[in-house]
Amino acid sequence: MSSLSSLQMVREPPWRSGFINMLRKENGFWWGTRKWWVQCLIWFLLLNGFVILLLWIVPAVDKGGAPSAAEVLDVFFQFLAVFAVFGVMILMQGVIVGEKKSGTAAWIMSNPISRNAFILAKLVANGFAILTIIVVLQGFIAYFQFFLQGDLVIRPTSFVAALGLEALHMVFYITLALMLGTLFYSRGPVIGISIAVLIGQDLIGQFIAMKFPWFPTLMPMRLVDMALPVAQGGALSSYTPVITTVLMSMSFILLAIWRFSREEF
Amino acid sequence: METPNKWVINTQGLSKSYKDVEALKSLDLKVAKNSIFGFLGPNGAGKTTTIKLLLGLTRPTSGGGTVFGHDILRDNVEIRKRIGYLAQNPSYYEYMTARETLRFRARFFYTGLKDALENRIAETLEMAGLTNKADRPIKGFSGGELQRLGIAQAQVNYPDLLILDEPAANLDPGGRRDVLEVMERLRKYTTIFYSTHILDDVQQVSDTVAILNHGELVAQAPMEELLAGSDGTIYTVVMEGDPSGAQARVTRREWVSGIDTTSMNGRITWRVHVSDEQAAKAELLRLILSDEETTVIEFGRKKYELEEVFLSIVEGKENVQP
Asked: Which residues have a Cβ under 8 Å from the Cβ of B102 and sit 6 or more positions away?
């Protein structure tokens, strides 16, 4: 019992007790291991690899058949939306389910940590890492390529605003996967339902739009459609998808917190 | 909020059902401060369920309880600030080392001075015999090493209550002895509540025992009281020869309430039930020895082994409450 007197007790309000330690651990898993640079490399190849191919390699080989810089920018935003959503599903599928199945969640919850803190630390650390690596870093590299190529003049603020729409689109899937992780005990439904939402909102959205034409404007996918015009300096055509996506993401977080508070270990 | 009485754990009617299965039925449990409390019961008796309810890992169906005076349902974060817990099948992050695991857990409790924290971690690793393996990922740890890590992480925060679910499982005899020594050493600092199937260990270190069977508390008593049994005082006599004369003399005494006789390999064993222990102590052996046809091989008051008490209770032969 030698060192007890020189240790200071952690003081946090009960509702977020253990949050800082849990957040530090989650951040350590991303940034203290090789995971961060492996992910950086994967997303560089997937997203900026195509930009390199279309912006530099194809024009060098076949100048007549090369897409315009604006078309390449559109491809970048579409890939960022679709590939990255699959990436989010893969990265987020085990964040809660994995811990529940392995028993580590039970061990953690035997410590002075609140259930809110557990969920919020998972969300903040994983959300920050995913958005930083996939959206911010890849966006920065892509912008630098367009800047060097010079065919398309993109204002930095417009590009950041467009990336913001892409980031919000991704937040929707991050929070969806988090919530599904609290509801299910295997990874299948977490990935399956997320993919169904990604594909379904286009297919079912078109179907519903025949009766309710305004319906597609509520969907997060609209954010991706708006990203290209915004990056090219246009104004945001509608705030509706921004508001509905924020509201749906917040609902997912609240539902995840509620469900996890009832979890039995 | 400090507990106003001596009970560290105090449950009233604590019950838990899973669908149609009653895992725990109206448990009234009291665990005194600084005791080593053995929590026994066959598989599926409800021991782990009870522990999870105390920690707030699961919610009671009805009833409730307090730990250190804090409600187990509402204030379980406060409760866990003062507890060290070793689960029956604990899972840790395999990519972390033993030192990182202890550091992660210690930081739920302590902040500030890094050196003090690292000293505490080193001290705990040494106590658990893991100093040489402290910086290896725990993915490669053996079952025994994981159990040592479990015990280390449970006490890195100087808990006021140590809850151990089968702490000696997966350990060789040396490891078991070490665990018992750790428990003995911690007795003056902390209360230890532990479940186990190894009854020898319980008898060795526990001062109070509770036995759970089919979700019901069937016995809770100090170890001495439990081992004394509830059959009254019994003396055991092993003899050779013809004991009929001695038996006639002994059964005439009014403090003798009965004699059970068994015979094996020419030896006769009596279990003499007595109502007056002092009289029996003074006269019984003398009465038997006064018979020249009988030679006494062994004589003594019957001592129960915990295993005997445990089996008789879980088989429903007796029901002991303090």
From this structure: B121, B124, B125, B152, B153, B156
